[in-house]
Every structure is written in structure tokens, then in C-alpha cells.
Specification:
single chain, 403 residues, alpha/beta, Cytidine Deaminase, domain 2, Dihydrofolate Reductase, subunit A, 2 domains, nine-stranded mixed sheet, six-stranded mixed sheet, 24% strand, elongated, binds ligand AOF, binds zinc ion
Length: 403
């Protein structure tokens, strides 16, 4: 269910479209745009949402804040700390409904009430059931009017696609990254494949990893390429400011996940040796004789044939490990399986300006398509040049959008 649908709102909260804005509040979209921009300051705050807050008094911004990492101050609290006494009678613009619960930190709705802000303007309702609508209710019960700038709703949700999808559908948001030559090939027939793309594209992939809660790969990739799949700070290409803002996010590696039905991961694989937690999903009957390090956990997964059931593996990453954003970095077989099962939300394709020829391996193993009407169709949402390569971001069309 979309959070803009009825049911979650308290009756008194005002839903404002840009066309409804009176002359004295015509600048509200500007401030909300700034709150959203602050939310984007940090690459990821998994499992928490990225949130930004701007406190405005008259035409002055008296405080700004954003959530830095789980366990740290929420955006509103950072902004209130900056504003101090000036927060009194200010308007708070927040990209997400202020929270009403005590989690790792106290309720932002109460902090705003205590600071005596005049009004609160939000871009989206928090889908967290511990909050959803309650933050608004708390503020209104204290006599603070809450407005929802509805035109910002989608943009606010797009800042945290995994956070919203996990709460609303029980599944994390899945990005599938692949790299290929201009003729759609990934590796020579002898398996030689590394470094199809240039250094800028590889640094871009580091950012994708840094914004993910987990990086998922298959045993075939582990055996063929022996990747680490970790975030390497020197390859991120961040400025000093970006480094400082992301310090806390970057201290933790994303979870690395190997789908390994027969439990063939070598004990000396690089992915196991680099810092961070590794989860191996398997369907093997016995897991006892594997002598793995303490950072590695073997999980006996639901089966789909002889393989790990991808949907229930994703559900488990969401519910057991609070993963909101998944990056699949796999080969043709697992990549194809993810796409064919409709579990990919975004395909991120790097295209290197080279031809590998028809003996080289194809991008994806997708078989069984009999006619054009069975093709898997996408909407291209972004194309850009990254170094000498091209990056295409595409979202699969649903069946109804296809026809
Ligand atoms: C806000 N502002 O900046 C964020 C919010 O464990 P905690 O205390 O950090 O709470 C996490 C929950 O708080 C998260 O699931 C979401 O509901 C909300 N996040 N809320 O008012 C913020 N990051
Ligand atoms: Zn909060």
C-alpha cells in the first residue's frame, strides 16, 4: 500500500499540493527541496532511512540536520541542536514524518514539541509501523499543525527505496549490477573476464556497495574470480567532505552473501578473509565439516529445486538482518535467475567500449523465450558516461506496463 493512500493520515493533517500554496508560503517547496538534499548527504544509513531537516524562521534558516547513521541523532535533533533557542516558533521541514517512538534515540516529535516549533511540514509518512501516523498525531495533539507537501512524496520515497519497500512489501530493494562489452559479452570463452570496465566505473561500483546493506553473489563467481566484494575507501573517489560525512557508514562493511547450494566456498576465498560479516546460504544437507572463521555464518535456505530460493533468501535478509538495499554482483546464471524471477528493481549496466566477439560469454543466461512478446522489458531511467564506459540504469516494467 502506498503511504499516500488514505488510512495513515490523521484527519487534521493538511495535504498540500504546490498549487494550494498561499503567497506567504510560496517558498515552502524551496525549503523542502533543501531538506531532501540534506537527506542525500550520506550515501546510506541502513537499516534506517536517510532523512533531512531544515528549520526556518522568517526567511532565515536557523538549523539544518541530517541522519548520519543508525544509532546517531535523527535529522530533526541535529537541526534543533544547531538552532538552539532560535528553533522556537520556527517551521520544521522534514523529508520524513518525525518519529514518535524511542528506538536507539528519543522521539523527534517530542523534541520538536519541546523546542516549541510553530509548524511541521513533511514530505512523506514513515512506513515504520512503530511510527506511521503517530508522529503526526503526537505533534497535532500538542497543537502543532502538520502539512504534507504531497508533490515531494515520491522524491522522498526515492531517497530510501529499500526502507520503504521492506516495510511495505517485506522485501529489500534489489539492484543488479553487471558489466559487458558493446556486443553484450562479459568474458572470453576461456573465462578471462576481469577489468572489462575502466577505473571510474569500478569506483562507481564501490559507491553502489557502500550504499548497500548487503552484496549478494553466487558460488560460481567466487570460484571463478575470487572477489572480495568489499568497500575500499581509496577506490571510492570521495572528496574530504564526503569522506567526513560518510565516516560512520563506511566503518561497517555491507554484509557479503554467497549463494552456495552445495557448500563449495573454499575456506581460503578472499571474500571470507576481508573484514565484515559473510552469510552463506546453502541447501547442503551437512554443514558440519566446514571450518569457517567466526565472521562467517552458514544458513540452510529454503529450496527451489536444488538451488537456494531467491525470494525467501531476500525475505530473510530483510527480516533477519534488517537489509534494506541489496546489490547483486553475480554472473550470467544467478543474474539471469534474479531477473527472470522478477526480483530485480534496478538493473545497473556498465558498457565498456570494446568488442569481445561471438565466442565470448553472453551477459545473462536467460532461456526459454519463444517470441518477442515474452521479452523482459525495461524502462531506462538514467544513462551517463562514467570514465570511458557508459552506465545504463533500467527498471523492469511490470507485466501490465509491458502491453
Ligand atoms: C526521524 N528522523 O532522521 C530518522 C527517522 O533506532 P532509532 O532511534 O534511530 O530509530 C529508527 C527509526 O526512526 C526508523 O526506523 C524510522 O522509523 C525513524 N527514522 N525518523 O524522525 C530521522 N532517521
Ligand atoms: Zn526521529
Amino acid at each position: 500500500m502506498s503511504c499516500t493512500q488514505a488510512g495513515l493520515y490523521k484527519e487534521s493533517m493538511k495535504i498540500l499540493s504546490n498549487n494550494d500554496l498561499d503567497a506567504d508560503i510560496l517558498d515552502w517547496p524551496v525549503y523542502m527541496g533543501q531538506a531532501l538534499e540534506l537527506a542525500r548527504n550520506v550515501i546510506g544509513t541502513s537499516p534506517n532511512p536517510r532523512v533531512g531537516c531544515v528549520l526556518v524562521k522568517g526567511s532565515d534558516i536557523v538549523g539544518q540536520g541530517w541522519h548520519v547513521a543508525a544509532g546517531q541523532d535523527h535529522a530533526e535533533v541535529m537541526a534543533l541542536k544547531e538552532a538552539g533557542k532560535a528553533a522556537e516558533s520556527a517551521i520544521a521541514f522534514v523529508s520524513l514524518e518525525p518519529c514518535s517512538h524511542t528506538g536507539c534515540t528519543g522521539p523527534c516529535a517530542e523534541a520538536l514539541i519541546k523546542a516549541k516549533v510553530a509548524q511541521v511540514v513533511i514530505a512523506s509518512i514513515d512506513p515504520n509501523p512503530a511510527v506511521s501516523g503517530e508522529g503526526v498525531a503526537k505533534l497535532e495533539a500538542a497543537g502543532i499543525n502538520v502539512f504534507h507537501l504531497v508533490e515531494f512524496d515520491q522524491a522522498a520515497r526515492d531517497i530510501n527505496p529499500g526502507y520503504f519497500k521492506l516495510r511495505e512489501q517485506g522485501l529489500p530493494y534489489v539492484r543488479c549490477k553487471m558489466a559487458m562489452s558493446l556486443d553484450g559479452r562479459t568474458a572470453l570463452a576461456n573465462g578471462e573476464s576481469q577489468w572489462i570496465t575502466g577505473p571510474s566505473a569500478r569506483s562507481d561500483v564501490q559507491k553502489l556497495r557502500a550504499m548497500s546493506s548487503a552484496v549478494v553473489t553466487g558460488i560460481e563467481t567466487v570460484l571463478a574470480d575470487d572477489p572480495s566484494l568489499n568497500v575500499r575507501l581509496d577506490e571510492l573517489g570521495f572528496s574530504e567532505l564526503e569522506m567526513a560525512r560518510n565516516e560512520l557508514t563506511l566503518t561497517e562493511q555491507p554484509l557479503r552473501v554467497i549463494l552456495d547450494s552445495k557448500l563449495r566456498t573454499p575456506t581460503d576465498a578472499k571474500i571470507l578473509a576481508s573484514p565484515g560479516l559473510v552469510k552463506i546460504f546453502t541447501t547442503a544437507e551437512t554443514t558440519e565439516d566446514k571450518n569457517l572463521a567466526t565472521n562467517v555464518e552458514i544458513i540452510v535456505a529454503d529450496k527451489s529445486g536444488q538451488r537456494v530460493n531467491l525470494r525467501s533468501m531476500l525475505e530473510s535478509l530483510g527480516s533477519d538482518f534488517a537489509c534494506t538495499d541489496i546489490l547483486v554482483e553475480a554472473g550470467a546464471t544467478l543474474g539471469g535467475a534474479f531477473i527472470q524471477s522478477g526480483l530485480v528493481d534496478e538493473l545497473i549496466l556498465y558498457i565498456a567500449p570494446k568488442l569481445l566477439g561471438s565466442d565470448a560469454k553472453a551477459l545473462l543466461d536467460i532461456s526459454g523465450l519463444q517470441s518477442m512478446s515474452e521479452s523482459i522489458n525495461f524502462d531506462i531511467v538514467d544513462i551517463r558516461k562514467v570514465g570511458n564506459d557508459i552506465r545504463v540504469t533500467a527498471k523492469p516494467l511490470t507485466t501490465s506496463e509491458n502491453h
